[in-house]
Specification:
Length: 338
């Protein structure tokens, strides 16, 4: 039987790279890979359904499925995890010394509905007592070039919501003290994207001397968060376009198995992938494992149900989804027992 050839889009990710470069081959499938910045990938897929297999924002996936605006089904594969609230930087003149000081402050996010912002609001509210209704949110992406532009996003009732003017960015407004805090410390904030203006602001443009992290010791905050919640928040999954899934339901399990093999291969080579310039790289790897265990990137629903349930709760609580989606509604049937 000839292999089924499918288009596949993803950002570069060490755990997925063996699938992208052909080191791992899903049984019965031939993948045609495209590399794309996550923000652009999600916008293209939500708006145009270009790819048959795609990396996808978990928050936007929840919204799209709850509103019935996109035809796709997810795999319980979560390649991207971060402590997104530690991406917040604050201006030194803002008076913000700790998370609780963010009440009544102006906070910039790339996109209000993105998963990183969803986790940040939920954690600030439930771990630090900063209500989503008691801060002022500023969104950088335009309505046209955003996940929300494809899913029909409107600001939830009661939220103080503003759009950053087209000639400004989160970074420029934070430097100029027009924002008190902004999510500009994450890795994607430094990768140029057509959708994100802050990624085009060089770190030597303007006076960054007064910009500092809200969490000066992210390792300590990570240890606190993991001790309390027992997971690292995920923001991306992978989806199969609905027409492909209905015509070839076997693709879901075969793809999942290949993702698992790719991650296992990446884990084996993790130590040798640490840049030689990072002198204490192996020691940081040991520290990470001491804090988070041997596998902070678990796949499958059994290992991720508490994380997904909290994400669904946050999405509903924040007014992004009108109803609480059920996990069984979101993932391919053949993967529900994994």
């Amino acid at each position: 039987m000839p292999k089924l050839t499918l288009s596949f889009v993803s950002a570069f990710n060490e755990r997925v790279q063996p699938l992208m470069d052909g080191t791992i081959h899903p049984e019965g499938l031939e993948l045609i890979p495209t590399y794309s910045h996550p923000a652009e990938t999600f916008w293209r897929q939500l708006k145009f359904h270009e790819f048959e297999i795609a990396e996808m924002s978990l928050s936007s996936y929840l919204i799209a499925r709850s509103r019935g605006v996109s035809d796709m089904v997810a795999l319980p594969v979560f390649p991207s995890r971060r402590l997104f609230h530690t991406w917040l930087a604050v201006h030194g003149d803002s008076g913000v010394q700790e998370p609780g000081d963010l009440v009544d402050k102006r906070i910039g996010v790339a996109e209000y509905q993105q998963t990183a912002a969803l986790w940040t609001r939920g954690i600030l509210e439930h771990d630090f007592g900063v209500s989503q209704y008691k801060v002022h949110w500023y969104m950088e992406r335009t309505e046209q070039l955003s996940h929300g532009g494809a899913t029909g996003f409107t600001p939830p009732p009661g939220i103080s919501f503003h759009r950053i003017p087209p000639d400004k960015s989160m970074a420029s407004m934070l430097i100029d003290r027009e924002l008190d805090a902004a999510a500009v410390l994450g890795p994607w904030a430094r990768v140029a994207s057509a959708l994100d203006r802050s990624s085009h602001v060089p770190r030597n443009d303007g006076d960054w001397s007064k910009v500092k992290p809200l969490f000066p010791d992210p390792i300590a905050e990570g240890a606190r968060f993991f001790k309390k919640h027992r997971f690292v928040p995920a923001n991306h999954t992978y989806i199969i376009r609905g027409d492909i899934h209905r015509k070839h339901p076997w693709v879901a399990f075969n793809l999942y198995a290949a993702f698992v093999k790719a991650k296992a291969l990446a884990q084996e080579k993790l130590a040798e992938q640490i840049p030689s310039a990072l002198f204490f790289g192996p020691e940081y790897l040991v520290m990470t494992r001491d804090v988070l265990g041997n596998d902070p990137f678990p796949y499958g629903l059994a290992a991720n149900r508490p994380m997904l349930e909290l994400l669904i709760d946050y999405s509903h609580e924040q007014g992004l989804t009108a109803k609480k989606m059920k996990i069984e509604e979101l993932f391919a049937e053949s993967t529900l027992d994994l």
